[in-house]
Amino acid sequence: MKFFACLLSTSLLLFVGQQLHAEQAIVLDQPDAPISISRYVNRYKTPARVGDGTVMHSVDVKNVSNQNIDAFGVGFYIFDSFNRDMGRPFIGYSMTPITSNSDGSARFEQRPRSAFLFERNGQGISYIAIVRLADGSIWKADNDNIARQIEDFELLITGDAVD
Fold it and tell me: Which of 8, 12, 128, 162 has the most CB atoms around its CB within 10 Å?
């Protein structure tokens, strides 16, 4: 019985330890977007041969508009294990249509410099950047709103918040 209890507590510590050292994924608030991100996951992918590797982004989305969507772009900001911005935002595009009130998904691969610094403790932020609706109209994210939310996040992770 002691062996089982020890094994169980060791397994729990390993599980908790893995959770503490996992990349974080955050979705920005965009109540007016025609698509909502229901799930965002990111991870570091080691290179097949030589190089820095890549950051993989996976999103599940829902078309919350009253018309079909022909294409959309998802924006990503990433921060390394030292809470430093890893460069300009990356936008991944999906050309897969999504009917009104339906779900979809997309996978994107980002190749930032020193991508290996994202492994285990990196943090990613996602948002809907642009959408082409079936009627030909284009919806674009409110860049001021996105910038404010990114700034708030940066203040939170760096601890430089000013009251």
Answer: 128
Strand partners, 35: 63
Q: What is the pTM of this model?
A: 0.81
91, 85, 90, 76: which is closest to 42 by C-alpha? 76
What are the tens digits of pLDDT across the range 54-63? 999 999 999 9
Q: What is the torsional sign of CA 106, 150, 117, 119?
A: negative
3 state DSSP class of 45: strand
Nearest to 73 by CA among 134, 146, 118, 138: 138
Instruction: Decide: 40 and 126 in contact? Cβ < 8 Å.
Output: yes
CA dist., res. 156 & res. 52, Å (int)? 27
Residue with tokens 């729990």: 12
